[in-house]
Amino acid sequence: MDKHNSQETGSKGILIFVAWFLVAATVIFILWVFAGVGRCYQAAVVSVAQFFAQCLGYTGWQLSAADFSRTYLGNLNLVPFLALAVVTPIRLSKRGKMFLIGLPILFFIHVINLVAHFPFWFHSSKAAKLMIDYTIGICGMGVPFAVWYVFARDLPWLKLRLEKKPKRKQGRPKTKRKG
Predict the structure, then answer these.
(1) CA 7, CA 12: separation in Å to the nearest integer?
(2) Is 174 among the domain residues?
């Protein structure tokens, strides 16, 4: 009976976490799309990506031909990352590390994605197309959750149940009798 109650409490805790995650993700999404946070973030990504594209030899004309005005919608993987980071019950120091490690990784993935568009657009590069598909398609969706898991893996409801629990012996423990 005690085991059942602890599982029920754990399930209730997960449901509360998911509910708070959905609320936080909704608020962050609204801020991202309608309050201009996404546009500001994307402006930073575009300027860094254009710098690297210039280093690769792309001209000012080629850079200006690229329209990145609505690409902030492609960086929505920051929404679940930020929501997870905000609502996960971990120490503040771990949360800070999660931001300090996760945000630069995601920023770098977004920059790679935009830089890869230049050879794809101007040279029809298949390698660049693969880079676009994998950086934002696969890595972009998996990295926020992987970074979150690294910092949240100590939570009891995230622990993998791989090890077998030792069996308890039935009956009374043996005691030594005095002589």
Answers:
(1) 8
(2) no
Asked if residue 75 lies in contact with residue 111, where contact means CB atoms within 8 angstroms, the answer is no
- DSSP string for residues in 124-171: --HHHHHHHIIIIIIIHHHHHHHHHHHHHTTSGGGS---SPPPPPPPS
The answer to whether residue 7 is domain-embedded is: yes
For 87, phi then psi, to 5°, come to -95, -10
Q: Tell me the pTM.
A: 0.75
Task: Name the domain count of the chain.
Answer: 1
Distance CA 129, CA 76 (A): 20
Number of residues in the chain:
179
Give the tens place of pLDDT for each residue, 135-152: 667 877 899 999 999 998
